[in-house]
Amino acid sequence: MSGQKIYEGILPVHKPEGVTSADVIRKLQRHFKPSDTFQGYLENETSRRSRDSNWQTRKKRRKLLHPDVKIGHGGTLDPMATGVLITGIGVGTKHLSKFLECSKTYETIIVFGAETDSYDRMGKIVRKADYEHVTRELVEEAMKKFRGKIMQRPPIFSAKRIQGKRLYEYAREGIEPPMAIKSSAVEVYDLRIVEWYEPGTHEYKWPEEELPAEEKEVAERMLDKEAAIPVASEAEAEAAQANTAAEDTKKRKVSPDILNEASEGVKDDAATKRQKTDTQNLNPESTTEEPNVVKKEHNTAKTDEAKESDPITIPAEKEEEAPRPPAAKIIMTVSSGFYVRSLAHDLGKAVGSCALMSELVRSKQGDYTLEPENILEYKDLDAGEEVWSPKVIRLLEAWQEKNP
């Protein structure tokens, strides 16, 4: 043993857009293992393993002699999202569960007038709707129903499992899950608009690609499920869940078996065209063969009584114009298990239109905030150990002092 100090604990990292949470862990590993900063940790780990009979087998011998810095994270962020990603180093990995359960603060940009299969700008457009009636006042009124305890349905492109298969896998194959997607009870502690963007005053846009016609029908059916349901107690949450499940059963006009058979020719083609590396935000990738068609037609004059499940169709002549939708920057503090993408989608329905999430920043998780002195910048890793090491040591030592 060299007597070098052992650094471990909780390390918040500022995740940039375009990388997965797993990418962050791998990059930390690549920089930490060969560094002088973590030699004390690695020597201690080698010594510990040499005394542990479980590491004496030939199969584990190499890992005994060449350990990695143990690193995990306390809750993923989608590739398009930025902000606080909590990582655990060494013994810190045992404390990550508390960050899965803690409250989180997000800042998001929601753009109205269109919805995608993934509920965000990384997906492909399923439907467009009129947005001329959408005002800040209308949105603020609709937001009242999303505060407090609500039942929220996960996005169809999420890692939730149904019968052992993730939801995004069903979506990529263009088929509905064999049973209803269950809503979950979540809580919204704070939800407010911090900036409103009138049409034509911002650069947030819808995606350009639309789903192919053969996949759009299933996507529309899944997107038309009921939006978030406000609840006042756990008992009411259970009752709301039961009612939602009953409604889902009623709405299923075609059995899962028939659906599977009908989409058999689509599955192989869709599966080969669509690939994405992160399980939190996998989106289909295929070319649009025909323009988006919205089957329902409604009066474009919409008031505060606009129904959440009744989006207004854009008249044909407007589809040729460049979209100039309104958008809003919204800040929220929410419980664990909350999907910001679902909020964007449901809020669009609540104002009689459609909406998608265009930007997302996690600005706080637990006690860790997105402030330069409180977080490791991802870009600092490439700047060299002399840049990132002092901040990493300071953050880990601060955690060790609080958790002796």
Provide the fold topology.
Blueprint: E1 9-15, H1 21-32, H2 39-50, H3 58-65, E2 71-73, E3 82-89, H4 97-101, E4 104-112, E5 114-116, E6 125-128, H5 136-143, E7 148-152, E8 161-162, E9 165-166, H6 167-173, E10 184-197, H7 213-223, E11 229-231, H8 234-251, H9 256-262, H10 264-273, H11 316-319, E12 327-334, H12 340-350, E13 355-365, E14 368-369, E15 376-377, H13 385-402
Parallel strand pairs: 1-15, 3-13
Antiparallel strand pairs: 1-3, 2-3, 4-12, 4-13, 5-6, 7-10, 7-11, 8-9, 10-12, 13-14
Family: Belongs to the pseudouridine synthase TruB family.
Protein name: tRNA pseudouridine(55) synthase
Region (Disordered): 39-60, 233-327
What CATH architecture of the largest domain would you give?
Answer: 2-Layer Sandwich
Q: Structural class, judged by helices and strands? A: alpha+beta
Which CATH first-tier class of the largest domain would you pick? Answer: Alpha Beta
β-sheet strand percentage = 15-25%
Shape annotation = elongated
Tell me the major beta sheet. Answer: 11 strands, mixed
Count of individual domains: 2
User: What gap, in angstroms, lies between the N and C termini?
Assistant: 22 Å
The poorly predicted ranges are 251-309, 313-318
Instruction: Give me the Rg, rounded.
Output: 24 Å
Average pLDDT: 78
State the CATH topology of the largest domain.
Answer: Pseudouridine synthase
- Helix and strand element order: EHHHEEHEEEHEEEHEHEHHHHEHEEEH
Domain Pseudouridine synthase II N-terminal: 63-199
InterPro entries: PsdUridine_synth_cat_dom_sf, PsdUridine_synth_N, tRNA_psdUridine_synth_TruB
Keywords: Isomerase, tRNA processing
Protein name: tRNA pseudouridine(55) synthase
